[in-house]
Design brief:
With 253 residues, this protein is α/β, with parallel strands linked by helices. The protein has helices at 3-13, 28-41, 56-69, 102-119, 135-140, 151-163, 183-192, 206-215, 224-228, 232-243; strands at residues 16-21, 45-48, 74-76, 90-96, 122-130, 168-172, 197-200, 219-222. It is globular and about 45 Å long. The structure holds SN-glycerol-1-phosphate.
């Protein structure tokens, strides 16, 4: 089964949680240990990527260690051609739709396409939309940030992604954002699209995860949580509990 089929089949039953591991933030061995733990906590896939200090070697070693320690699908979350690793199960073939830089819209994609084809990595097309505050990815990607109150722009980009044939939409507030993407924006986007909606950036506790899921997010991504919070296990359990539809962070009996 392809990773995209896995996503679609799982979403027929329940919502999903993905964890972002930034290879620049820990050793490859520690990334492997984290993946082992994340699998037991219940995350559904590991995304590997970062905005700065990414090399192919670091991607390769990190992904190899994750694959060694877990059975979770590994999806590359690329910042450029250097992110492509033969060891991953899939790559988001993504375009930052609101970038002001052609490289982030289609240039890097054109440079990487043949490499991805030759390596046989599953490419999952995705429209990537960066919402205020956007953080590092907004700066690096020269995003014309979608304003938090400008729901109509977010809907326009997301529907354009679908009409262009993209298979996922990702609403991004930026890694480490003080707040996630506004719930109202998630609700409005979800109402107009029929492809899965991923939401990430600034999600660190169950209440916002629950609200985002209730607003229509199909997949919730957390990254910073595992890097900065010593109680990340408990927080993740509660978030995943919400995502999987076990109520407001309450475990099944
Ligand atoms: C970043 O959406 C992801 O691309 C995750 O964000 O690090 O804030 O969880 P956080």
């Amino acid at each position: 089964m392809s990773v995209y089929e896995y996503i679609i089949k799982t979403l027929e039953k329940r919502k999903m949680h993905f964890t972002l591991i930034d290879p620049a933030k820990q050793t490859p061995e520690d990334a492997g240990n984290l993946a082992f733990e994340l699998q037991s906590i219940g995350t559904d896939a590991i995304m590997v990527g970062g905005s700065t200090n990414i090399t192919t070697d670091l991607m390769d070693e990190t992904i190899k260690n994750i694959k060694l320690r877990s059975k979770l699908p590994v999806i590359i979350f690329p910042n450029g051609v250097q992110s492509i690793s033969r060891y991953a199960d899939a790559i988001y073939f993504m375009s930052m739709l609101n970038s002001n830089d052609r490289d982030f819209i289609i240039g890097n994609q054109a440079r990487g396409a043949l490499i991805i084809k030759r390596l046989g990595i599953e490419a999952i097309s995705m429209g990537y939309i960066v919402v205020e505050p956007g953080m590092t990815v907004g700066r690096v990607g020269k995003a014309i940030l979608v304003k938090r109150e400008n729901t109509a722009d977010a809907v326009g980009y997301a529907l354009a992604a679908q009409l262009l044939g993209m298979r996922l939409v990702y609403l991004e507030a930026g890694s480490g954002a003080p707040q996630p993407v506004p719930y109202e924006m998630v609700r409005a986007v979800k109402k107009e699209i029929s492809i899965p909606l991923i939401v990430g950036g600034g999600i660190r506790e169950k209440n916002s995860a629950c609200e985002l899921i209730n607003s229509g997010a199909d997949i919730i991504v957390t990254g910073t949580l595992i890097e900065k919070y010593t109680d990340y296990r408990e927080r993740l359990k509660q978030i995943i509990s919400c995502v999987r539809g076990r109520g407001d962070g309450v475990e099944n009996p």
